[in-house]
């Protein structure tokens, strides 16, 4: 009887070791792949050799902000004010590096990534009222009514 128990223990140990040595079946590739958030046609040219695009009827160079991002914030503004494009004046549009994930516009009680975030700031004027939009390169934006007093770093594109 003891021999049978010893043999069973040895067999069980052998099976456990054998199963542990088998390589797993190939599964999905879980490696991180970078995601491009802007199509190449919307990216800013690296050199100043190309002619800059003009965005819409505002007449500024798209060298500072991709058209798709600009259109997103403009559409948001127009839906808020309920007026047409002709009532909107573009004050500025610039590339910015925000100090953290709040994009320079933290909300009380919210937590944000504590890393620099590349993005943009677009400021509009409508009938004397200023609308300050803060954007990330990834397309997230917020209308900021109480921006932080310390300015983010303006970056060159």
Keywords:
single chain; alpha+beta; 2 helices; 7 strands; 5-stranded antiparallel beta sheet; 157 residues
Series of H and E elements = HEEHEEEEE
The helix content is 10-25%
> How many E strands?
7
Basic shape: rod-shaped
Q: Total number of helical segments? A: 2
Q: Please state the CA-atom Rg, rounded to the nearest Å.
A: 28 Å
Uncertain residue segments: 23-55
State the strand order across the main sheet: 6-5-4-3-7
Strand content: 15-25%
Provide mean pLDDT, rounded.
74
Largest β sheet strand count, sense and barrel closure: 5 strands, antiparallel
Distance between the first and last residues' Cα = 81 Å
Structural class: alpha+beta
Map the helices and strands.
Elements: H1 2-21, E1 54-55, E2 60-61, H2 67-81, E3 88-98, E4 117-126, E5 129-136, E6 141-143, E7 153-154
Antiparallel strand pairs: 1-2, 3-4, 3-7, 4-5, 5-6
Summarize, please:
The chain has two helices and seven strands. The chain is of the alpha+beta class and 157 residues long.
What does this structure look like?
The chain is α+β, with helices and mostly antiparallel strands and 157 residues long. It has a domain at 59-154. Helices cover 22% and strands 24% of the residues. The chain has helices at residues 2-21, 67-81; strands at residues 54-55, 60-61, 88-98, 117-126, 129-136, 141-143, 153-154. The protein has a five-stranded antiparallel beta sheet, with helices on one face. The chain has a two-stranded antiparallel sheet with strand order 1-2. Strand 1 (54-55) and strand 2 (60-61) form a beta hairpin. The longest helix is centred in the N-terminal third of the chain and has 20 residues, at 2-21. The protein is rod-shaped. It starts with a helix and ends with a strand.
